[in-house]
């Protein structure tokens, strides 16, 4: 059975305007202290010395390789150059930042509590906005770009569905920033940041690094004029198919808990903002010991099912880079873990994690934020992809590039 729901099945808000959000700005001083603390994690931590997500606080070296055939799409550079060349000078000053700008790590899946740099798409003329989106499209696979655009459209659908926050829950309330100078030879990249859509794309040494990535939707199926727009079907259904093949007698190896209901969870995993997620905004230096069943210990059909699920996330990148990253993940299958929390029937909410030395994926069903379901439901999805051990934002490959070409 599909995760999708009809509009009449969705819970509608009973109290409108309860969050202090105006024009894509969240006033954290008007929030309860606990909520304010969680929702400002990215802002509070983005200048901390970068380590990366690790198992024990110490990043492993030598996992990522700069050499090999180029996998960057050729059209991304001219698209980015065309976008920047068309901007008015005062816009370019804040829309194009140096490659080492700290704003790489300043992002939130919620609504920003600061005034972001970069250019907000819904403040651009359509031609400039189209050129910005063309950079994103040229950098991703067709499926990856379609999913990003679906998440953006579903953000607008949410605003229409609840008839509130109409200056914030829109299709283009996202900030786009170019870092560095677009070049076939020198590192550069871009960030797209806003509610349920956070992508960091780095081009270095002929490779593409797409991490961190946070994509989500509430709800995952469009209604009204957005009918037919859907997101996260594969992230849900392929995972369920894999879970249903796992043996009950091995549940002690992969099952973290059988329910996502708040009463069944430890308090730190029952909050409405992060839910079960550990690797969201502000978690660049997360220490995460591995949990779950070891991929290499699975029988071939289940191992194939896990690879299929990994491909769902990697296939957001251009095919050559997706293949290259999958090959790297396969090298570490003896250390790759798969963990699950929640049910696996046709209705239950769930969470899962894929944790490799070179890939971290989290999927979570959430309670309502703008809708009123008090417990997690499948029509509210968050996903996160990270490059552990120091390669978020392409940091490991960038360090290799600078040592090789600039002596530092």
TrEMBL record:
<protein>
    <submittedName>
        <fullName>Uncharacterized protein DUF3500</fullName>
    </submittedName>
</protein>
<dbReference type="Pfam" id="PF12006">
    <property type="entry name" value="DUF3500"/>
</dbReference>
<dbReference type="InterPro" id="IPR021889">
    <property type="entry name" value="DUF3500"/>
</dbReference>
